[in-house]
Automatic annotation (TrEMBL):
This is dTDP-glucose 4,6-dehydratase. The keyword GTP-binding does not apply. GO terms for molecular function: dTDP-glucose 4,6-dehydratase activity. Coiled coil: none annotated. It comes from Neomoorella humiferrea. Residues 5-307 form the NAD(P)-binding domain. The gene is rfbB. Its cofactor is NAD(+). Pfam families: GDP_Man_Dehyd. GO terms for biological process: nucleotide-sugar metabolic process. Belongs to the NAD(P)-dependent epimerase/dehydratase family. dTDP-glucose dehydratase subfamily. It catalyses: dTDP-alpha-D-glucose = dTDP-4-dehydro-6-deoxy-alpha-D-glucose + H2O.
Amino acid sequence: MVKLLVTGGAGFIGSNFIRHILKEHPDWYIVNLDKLTYAGNLENLKDVEDNPCYRFVRGDIADRELVDRLFREEKFDLVANLAAESHVDRSILDPAPFIETNIKGTQVLLEAARQHGVRKFLQVSTDEVYGSLQPDDPPFTEASPIRPNSPYSASKAAADLFCRAYFRTYGVPVVITRCSNNYGPYQFPEKFIPVCITNALEGKPIPMYGDGLNIRDWIHVEDHCQALDLVLQKGRPGEVYNIGASNEHTNLEIVKTILKLMGKPESLITFVKDRPGHDRRYAIDAKKIRQELGWAPARDFVSGLEELIHWYTINTSWWERVKSGEYREYAEKWYGSLAK
């Protein structure tokens, strides 16, 4: 039996990844370590919580004693680190939690992996570590320099460099993935696409930073999870793999597409003051993972949006509970008062 530690598994990408692994590898055993901060929602995994191949542990990846105990008890073969403070606006307001979780927490996990001899350590990073592109610049490759522009992306870049150092210095079998913007079910409703859909469903204004012409490269979370699975199994230690679907769109295009698909008026779009240090464009060159591991995205962007709009429409209670904060009651029932 393969034993896999997934950190941050109660979050958006983490919960989708756990569901993917349980489906594709039913003989694997997963431990989900999650601190259950604002973005951690155990309701994301209600359908698998009774699976005998799944265990949830509430805890902080920066807690050395807890992490070391888990590694000693479970003897993990594989680690997938998806735990992260990830919201850029929150990092601008207070960078400290990003340093604690994204940098210190990653180092704690790396040291445990070194001490206990894991077979593979997957660091799930972001294309934001590369910084910003101009409209005519070629997409980022794995050889692009790291030039983060927000406290969030700076903390992820630092974590990536610790991973590189642990591979080069200690031989820890680390692989790093850097993915473009994800969309899909169970995404925390303060993120861009969920805000667009849920505000439109409620008839509320949709805030649009600046001129709305910032460009992002979008990928469905299920395509991302498939790529992570492949990298975890077949990725070469010490390597970086970009993951992207070549779906570049301006934020304004995204909102207008969503409103058109929902039959809602564009008058809901409300332009607001731009975010400080707002990166103009991200774009990913994913040739390496396509050529080495045979991965390719399966989702068409517009049909993926249509499916997602339907998901939010029939799962109103889920996102309403998240927006109101009621979702935290589910975890508090079992795990006591949660961190903010």
